[in-house]
Amino acid sequence: QKEVEQNSGPLSVPEGAIASLNCTYSDRGSQSFFWYRQYSGKSPELIMSIYSNGDKEDGRFTAQLNKASQYVSLLIRDSQPSDSATYLCAVSSGSARQLTFGSGTQLTVLP
Amino acid sequence: GAGVSQTPSNKVTEKGKYVELRCDPISGHTALYWYRQSLGQGPEFLIYFQGTGAADDSGLPNDRFFAVRPEGSVSTLKIQRTERGDSAMYLCASSLSGRAAGELFFGEGSRLTVL
């Protein structure tokens, strides 16, 4: 059973702070890693993908991957109230096209 | 249309009834996926189409669930003899076949309620 674990939160940070979201996965064969943002009542939206160890930056977002520790994280710098959402970690393995999602971390950015 | 379109947005049915949920993917996207999301959970994979064929249906929970994509574009998820446990948001997603698995564009979903 492939598992993806996230702290459900809620995680609250003040506006302008760094929000740190964490995810661990059980399948060592996992090769592709994704962060989706889901606003309340809306569908998931891809915000970051990462495929190799290290950091990947895109604007205020940084994804970090450590395959040896089976750990992936998302950092949001200069957090804004509009970042308040549930963040879903998703993993795919090898040639499989299906994603395994975590249950998400609810983030609230306080003005 | 510009995005993935799903109909109906809401469906309320009685236990034992048959339902169909429709998905119209982004034009040109050959890969199409169905996921199911319950409250407080992440999406759960159901089935993946590449073109007209179901390339991976390992996530379908039982034989009451079936999906088709006869012309390689629109897909229909069919649920027979619905049960209360089938109540969930059913999400359709599409992607370009050349893109990495997981770079998905989701529709707004069809919320199914089985009374």
How would you summarize what this structure contains?
Chain A has 111 residues and is mostly beta strands. Chain A has no helices and eleven strands.
Helix content range of chain A: under 10%
Order of helices and strands of chain A: EEEEEEEEEEE
Beta content of chain B: over 45%
Strand/helix succession of chain B:
EEEEEEEEEEE
- Structural class given helices, strands, pairing of chain B? mainly beta
What does it look like?
Chain A is mainly beta and 111 residues long. Chain A has no helices and 11 strands. In chain A, strands 2, 4, 5, 9, 10 and 11 form a 6-stranded mixed β-sheet that branches. In chain A, strand 4 and strand 5 form a beta hairpin. The N and C termini of chain A lie far apart (40 Å). The N and C termini of chain B lie far apart (33 Å). In chain B, the strands form 2 sheets. In chain B, strands 2, 4, 5, 6, 9, 10 and 11 form a 7-stranded mixed β-sheet that branches. In chain B, strands 1-3-8-7 form a 4-stranded antiparallel β-sheet, with no helix packed on it. Chain B is 0% helix and 48% strand. Chain B has strands spanning 5-7, 10-13, 19-24, 31-37, 44-50, 53-56, 65-68, 75-79, 88-95, 105-106, 110-114. Chain B is mostly beta strands. Chains A and B meet through strand 4, strand 5, strand 9 and strand 10 of A and strand 5 and strand 10 of B.
Task: List the topology elements.
The complex is a heterodimer of chains A (111) and B (115).
Chain A: E1 4-6, E2 11-14, E3 19-25, E4 30-38, E5 45-50, E6 54-58, E7 61-66, E8 71-76, E9 85-93, E10 100-101, E11 105-110
Parallel strand pairs in A: 2-11
Antiparallel strand pairs in A: 1-3, 3-8, 4-5, 4-9, 6-7, 7-8, 9-10, 9-11
Chain B: E1 5-7, E2 10-13, E3 19-24, E4 31-37, E5 44-50, E6 53-56, E7 65-68, E8 75-79, E9 88-95, E10 105-106, E11 110-114
